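Risk register update: the risk of archive-format incompatibility is retired. Evidence:
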Amino acid sequence: MFFAGIDDTAEMALHAAIRKYPDRFIEVERRLSIGDRTPDELRSLKKALNALFSTDVRRWQTWRLISVVEQQLGEYDKALDAIVEAEKSREPSRRGNLLATFIVDMLKKKQFEVAYDATKRVDEINCASLKSRVPIFEAKALRGLGKFRESAKILENILDSGIPQLKGEAAILLAEIYLENLHDTKAAEKALGAFPMYRRTIPEQVAVLMAKIRMCERKFDEAKSYLVKALNVYKRSDELFYLYAFNMFFAGIDDTAEMALHAAIRKYPDSRFANDGVEYLLVLQETGDGVKQLREALFDMFAHDTAAALDKFNELTKKGASEDIMDMIYWKKAQCQLTMNDSLAYETLYELVEKFPESFYAPLAMEIIADRYVKAGENAKATKIFSEILEKYPDASNLQSVRQKLLSLGGSI
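Archived output:
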């Protein structure tokens, strides 16, 4: 019954599924993770899961599923407690994977405080193999919390300790922090020097970061050299492909940039860099005095100089630009404001939706506005906006997340 999606007898269905098909536990977990359930349905499901403790279902499996449900309810602290209990219920030799996976999931969901707290619970499960990775997890969580110097210090300690299995990951992460958060290209390059080189070919991640460092230093010819060499080795890397196009764009070599951007978008339309590629193409198709300033603002965003980018976007919104790209300018301005925790971001997003209701960015802006209402406890307003997005923008790129958020508030689709 559970595998058929029938949840009205959840306890019996779960018990039968796990008992009869122990090898399909992962499928049970997956169905819980992706199911569109209301908060009331999730609470009923949690009650059914608790009833499994009196059956012959393994305790760690039940705790693991409870953790999944708590995450869907947004109760991340309770989800952490459940996963720790799941680890404690396993044989000592099998411990560590559940908590490690949980920490990785929390980092992906930007629940950095929970991820950091989880690193402090490792001692409870007595797992030496996981304990060795704790410093990396701590550094990632601290970076997410904006504690860049603390994160960098942990990573430098890892590099000094000479632990080979962590050294490469630590060097990459430290270089990213120096480049993207502390804006120190020299320190970023020095960090990459600690990357263990076991072969003559430069690793892809190192090539990407070296190219970014040179681009941030406006040494576009050197960046091009790194990228060409790397692309000869990593021919299927979408990131290197797009970086080459971006480098040409920022260097002002417009004909080459346009061809490279078209090629990248055709070859990797689903890449996480595709939206930036399309936006840069739009800029190249514009003419007028504002294009140079817009290119410079986008470069500042690429180099993570958010304050400088925001100043330029403010000027562009005041003096105007082509109607075809004004919605993008408002969106980029709002992104800068959000990065700087500027409450004026929401005014910018409202303005975007009012002035450009047909824009690709309108439903994205509305979702961010609705998220703010959720945080403020104004669920009725958030529900109204989420429903409006589904009604007015059936082809929006954020429909899946909007549906999930609406259901979590008890709304209907």
